[in-house]
Design goal:
heterodimer; A: 379 residues; alpha+beta; Butyryl-Coa Dehydrogenase, subunit A, domain 1; Butyryl-CoA Dehydrogenase, subunit A, domain 2; Butyryl-CoA Dehydrogenase, subunit A, domain 3; two-stranded antiparallel sheet; 10 strands; 17% strand; globular; B: 398 residues; four-stranded mixed beta sheet; 12 helices; binds flavin-adenine dinucleotide
C-alpha cells in the first residue's frame, strides 16, 4: 500500500506549481473575471503546449498517456490558483467521454485537437435549476438516417458553453437517455452568456434548433454516470487545491493582522476556526486520494469512492472559502481582495456535475446496492 | 403574556397601514441611489405624523411607545416598503440615538428636527484600516487649535459616506494615554474642507461603503460629544444602539427557500418531498421564528424602558453564519443551475448569498459578538488583555 503520489508525480507538481506561479497570478484570474473573455487564452495555449491537456490521453491521439494520477496532480494545482480555463469541461468531461464512448471517427476527429488544446469541449446536461434525474432531459434527438440526428432543446447553464467548439449533450431518443456529440459551429446552435456567480469561469446557454449531430457511440445513462464518477475525482482535487489556497491565505492573514495588541491568530476563536478548516480539508484530501487510487486502478469501488471524494471536497472548499473571508474582516468583503474569488469558485465547483443533494442520493443508493448484494452473497 | 394587539394597538395598526398604503405607491421598488428616496420617504413619514415615532415631539418625533414603533415597522415590512427606513438606520438608529442620549442641548436642537424631516443623512466614521474589531485602536488624530479641533487620518468601510451630510466620528486626542482613555467623539459636517470620500467596490458587486480621508479638517469644539477623552463611552452608546438597530433588519430568506423547494426538482420529484430538504426547511423555519420571537421579546423589554443591552447581539449573530449555510444548501439544491445567477424574485437568493458575507462582519463580527455575549451577558472572565493598560503609542501593532 502506498497512499501517496510517486516522486515523478511530485516533481510534475513542482513544475506545475512553478509554471502557474508565473503564468496564473491573480491578474490572470481577474482579467477573465472583469471582462467578457470566456477564459484566459494565453494560459490555455501554454497548458496545451506543456502537454497538460493531453496528459491522460493515449499517445495515439497526441497525448502523453501518463494517466489519471498525473491529471489529479494538475487539477489540484489549477484549483489552487483558480485557473480561468476550460480545462475541466474539455478534459475531465468531454475528452474522457469521447475516449471511452466514441467510435473511431469521433475519437480520431476530436481527441487530437482536444489533447493539443486547439479545440475545447464541454458537457451540456442541465436544463435550468434543480437536480432532476438526468433521464428526464427535455432535449430530444430525432434520427435523420445515416447515423445522424437532429437535436432540439435548451441547455443551461453550461460551463464553458461560450468557449467550447464541441459539446456532448444529453438528450432523449425515443424515451431513453443518449449522449450526442455536437459541433457547436453551426447555425442551428445559438449561444448566450448566462450570468454566473463566478465570472472567472463563465457559463453559457446553448439552444439547439434541429442541430445536426451524431450519437456518441452507444452511450447512455451508464456511460454518463461512469463519466461523472471519473470527473468527480478530478474536480475533488481541484476543490482541494482551492481549499488549501483559501486556508493558507487565511493563516497568513491571521499571523500578520494585529488587533488588541496581538496577532488575531492568537485568539482561540480564530485559531480553532483555522484548525477546523484544516481538519475538514485533510479528510477531503484523504477521500480524494482513495478515489484517485480507485480511478487509476479501475477498481469497482470507484462509484462509492468518487461520491465520497466529491461530497467531502465540496464541503471542505466551501468551509475554507467562507471562513477565509471571515478571517479577513472588512477586507474580505471587498472586490479587490481575493477571498471572495474562492467563495465564488467553491460555489461554482459545488454545482458543476451536480450539487451535494444529488451526490448524497447517488452515494446512498450505491451503498444500498452494496448491502443488497452482500446479503445475496454475490461478490 | 399576550402576543395579540390590544384594541388600541389594533387601531394604531390600522392607521399605520392606511398611511403606508396611501403613500407607498411612489416608493415601491425605489433604490438607494443618491439616498433621494430615503430622504423623501422620511419626509413623507414626518409630514404624515409617522416619522421618528419614539422621539419626543419637541425634536420632530411622535412620542409613541416602542410597541407602536414596532407595529409601524411590521406594517412597513408587510407592505414591502421597509428598505428605505432600514437604510436610514445609521442616521436614526445610531447617529440620532447617540445625539439624543449624549449630545448637548444645542446639538439636539440643531440636528434632530432636520433628521426627523429627512434633511440630514449621517454616516459612521469609526473603523480604520488598522482598527475594526479593536475599535479603540483608532489612530485618526484630533489636535486642539483655539475653538477648533484639527483632524487628520483615514477611515474605512464607511457605509453611505458618499451620500451623507454629516458623520459621527471618533478620534484620538491623547496618544500617550491608555487606548480607551485617549479618544474623543465629534459630529462632523461632511462638506468640510479636507474631506475625501472614495468608494470601495464590494465583494457583492455594489459600492455602498467607502474610504474616507481627513486632511487637517477643522471641527468646532461645539461639535464635540461628551468630554475630551470620554469618546469611548459615547462610542459604546452608538455601538449598543447599532446592534439593536441592525440586529433584525437582514432578510431571513425563508420565503425564498420555501418557494424554490416547491418548484425545484430533485431526482424524479419536487425537492420539498425529499427528506433532507424537508429537514432543511423545518430548521430554517424554526430559526426564522426564533429570531422573530426573540426580536419581539427584545422590543417588549425596550417598551418597558430598558436600554438595548449586550444581548441584542444575538439577533445579528444568528442572522449571519447560519443563514449563510442555509443559503448554500439552497443553492446546492439548484444543482448546476445554482451557479447561474437567477433573475426576478429568485435573484434575491444570490444577492443574499454574497451580501451575507458582509452581514457577518459589519457592526461587530461573529467572533466579537460571541465575546460580548460570553463576557458581558454570561459574565465569563475576559480574555487577558495585553493592550489595555499600556499607553496607546506603546501597544504592539504587528
Ligand atoms: C458591509 C460593511 C459595512 C460597514 N460599515 C461600516 C460603517 O458604516 N462605519 C464603520 O465605522 N465601519 C463599518 N464597517 C466596518 C466593520 O465594523 C469592521 O469591518 C468590523 O468591525 C471588523 O473589523 P476589521 O475589518 O478591521 O477586521 P479585524 O478586526 O481585523 O478582524 C479580522 C478577523 O479577526 C477576528 N477578531 C478580531 N479580534 C478578535 C478577538 N478579540 N477574538 C476573536 N476574533 C477576533 C474578527 O472576528 C475577524 O474574523 C463595515 C463593514 C462591512 C463589512
Amino acid at each position: 500500500m502506498r497512499f501517496d503520489f510517486t516522486e515523478d508525480q511530485e516533481s510534475l507538481r513542482g513544475e506545475a506549481r512553478r509554471f502557474l506561479a508565473s503564468h496564473c497570478g491573480r491578474e490572470t484570474v481577474r482579467a477573465v473575471l472583469d471582462s467578457d473573455e470566456p477564459y484566459s487564452r494565453e494560459l490555455w495555449a501554454e497548458m496545451g503546449r506543456l502537454g497538460w491537456t493531453g496528459v491522460a490521453l493515449p499517445e495515439a491521439f497526441g497525448g502523453s498517456g501518463a494517466g489519471y494520477l498525473e491529471l489529479c496532480v494538475l487539477a489540484e494545482e489549477m484549483g489552487r490558483v483558480l485557473a480561468p480555463t476550460p480545462f475541466s469541461s474539455s478534459i475531465y468531461l468531454a475528452a474522457e467521454l469521447i475516449l471511452r464512448e466514441g467510435d473511431d471517427a469521433q475519437t480520431t476527429d476530436w481527441l487530437p485537437r482536444l489533447a493539443a488544446g486547439t479545440a475545447i469541449g464541454t458537457l451540456a446536461l442541465a436544463e435550468g435549476p434543480g437536480a432532476a434525474d438526468w433521464g428526464l432531459a427535455r432535449t430530444r434527438a430525432t434520427p435523420l438516417g445515416g447515423g445522424h440526428y437532429a437535436l432540439t432543446g435548451v441547455k443551461q447553464p453550461v460551463p464553458d458553453g461560450l468557449a467550447a467548439d464541441v459539446a456532448i449533450v444529453s438528450a432523449r431518443l425515443s424515451g431513453e437517455l443518449g449522449l450526442f456529440l455536437v459541433d457547436l459551429h453551426q447555425p442551428e446552435v445559438t449561444r448566450h452568456p448566462e450570468p454566473g456567480l463566478d465570472e472567472s469561469r463563465p457559463l453559457g446557454r446553448l439552444s439547439f434548433s434541429g442541430a445536426r449531430c451524431a450519437r456518441l457511440g452507444s452511450a447512455g445513462r451508464a456511460a454518463l454516470d461512469a463519466a461523472l464518477d471519473r470527473a468527480a475525482v478530478l474536480f475533488a482535487f481541484e476543490q482541494i487545491g482551492g481549499a488549501e489556497a483559501a486556508l493558507s491565505m487565511a493563516v497568513g492573514h491571521a499571523r500578520q493582522r494585529f488587533a488588541f495588541g496581538r496577532a488575531i491568530g492568537s485568539f482561540q476563536a480564530i485559531k480553532h476556526k483555522l484548525a477546523d478548516m484544516y481538519a475538514e480539508l485533510e479528510l477531503a484530501r484523504s477521500n480524494a486520494y482513495f478515489a484517485a487510487w480507485a480511478l487509476a486502478s479501475g477498481d469497482a469501488v470507484l462509484g462509492e469512492a468518487a461520491a465520497c471524494a466529491r461530497l467531502s471536497a465540496s464541503r471542505a472548499y466551501f468551509d475554507c472559502a467562507k471562513e477565509c473571508v471571515q478571517v479577513h474582516g472588512g477586507m474580505g468583503f471587498t472586490w479587490e481582495a481575493d477571498p471572495h474569488l474562492h467563495y465564488r469558485r467553491a460555489t461554482l465547483l459545488n454545482a458543476v456535475i451536480g450539487g451535494q443533494a444529488r451526490w448524497r442520493e447517488v452515494l446512498v443508493s450505491r451503498l444500498q446496492q452494496k448491502d443488497a448484494s452482500a446479503r445475496e452473497g454475490t461478490p | 403574556m399576550n402576543f395579540d394587539d390590544t384594541p388600541e394597538e389594533a387601531a394604531y395598526r390600522t392607521a399605520a397601514r392606511t398611511f403606508i398604503e396611501a403613500h407607498k405607491g411612489a416608493f415601491l421598488g425605489s433604490d438607494l441611489a443618491g439616498f433621494d428616496a430615503v430622504r423623501r420617504w422620511q419626509a413623507v413619514r414626518h409630514a404624515g405624523g409617522w416619522g421618528c415615532l419614539q422621539w419626543p415631539k419637541a425634536y420632530g418625533g411622535q412620542g409613541a411607545s416602542a410597541v407602536q414603533a414596532l407595529i409601524y415597522s411590521q406594517e412597513e415590512e408587510a407592505a414591502g416598503i421597509s428598505l428605505l427606513s432600514v437604510a436610514n438606520a445609521i442616521t436614526i438608529g445610531m447617529a440620532a440615538a447617540t445625539i439624543m442620549q449624549c449630545g448637548t442641548q444645542a446639538q439636539k436642537e440643531r440636528h434632530l428636527p432636520r433628521i426627523a424631516r429627512g434633511e440630514e443623512i449621517w454616516c459612521q466614521l469609526f473603523s480604520e484600516p488598522s482598527a475594526g474589531s479593536d475599535l479603540a485602536g483608532i489612530r485618526t488624530r484630533a489636535v486642539r487649535d483655539g475653538d477648533d479641533w484639527v483632524v487628520s487620518g483615514q477611515k474605512v468601510w464607511t457605509s453611505f459616506a458618499h451620500y451623507a451630510d454629516f458623520a459621527i466620528l471618533i478620534t484620538r486626542t491623547d496618544p500617550a494615554a491608555p487606548k480607551h482613555a485617549g479618544l474623543t467623539y465629534f459630529l462632523l459636517d461632511m462638506t468640510s474642507p479636507g474631506m475625501t470620500v472614495k468608494p470601495i467596490r464590494q465583494a457583492s458587486g455594489g459600492s455602498d461603503f467607502n474610504e474616507v480621508f481627513l486632511e487637517a479638517v477643522r471641527i468646532p469644539d461645539s461639535n464635540r460629544v461628551g468630554e475630551v477623552g470620554d469618546g469611548w463611552r459615547v462610542a459604546l452608546t452608538t455601538l449598543m444602539n447599532e446592534r439593536a438597530a441592525i440586529g433584525s433588519i437582514f432578510p431571513t430568506n425563508f420565503d425564498d427557500a420555501w418557494r424554490l423547494a416547491a418548484q425545484t426538482p430533485l431526482g424524479d420529484r419536487p425537492a420539498i418531498e425529499a427528506g433532507g430538504v424537508l429537514q432543511l426547511l423545518a430548521d430554517w423555519y424554526v430559526w426564522r421564528q426564533g429570531l422573530k420571537n426573540f426580536s419581539l421579546r427584545l422590543q417588549s423589554a425596550l417598551s418597558q424602558g430598558r436600554m438595548p443591552g449586550p444581548e441584542a447581539s444575538i439577533g445579528k449573530l444568528m442572522l449571519g453564519a447560519r443563514r449563510q449555510l442555509y443559503l448554500f444548501e439552497l443553492l446546492d439544491l439548484l444543482d448546476i443551475g445554482g451557479a447561474a445567477l437567477a433573475s426576478g424574485e429568485d435573484g434575491d437568493i444570490h444577492f443574499s448569498f454574497l451580501r451575507v458575507i458582509g452581514n457577518r462582519l459589519e457592526g461587530g463580527t461573529d467572533e466579537i459578538l460571541r465575546n460580548i455575549i460570553g463576557e458581558r451577558v454570561l459574565g465569563l472572565p475576559p480574555e487577558p488583555r495585553v493592550d489595555k493598560a499600556l499607553p496607546f503609542n506603546e501597544v504592539p501593532s504587528g
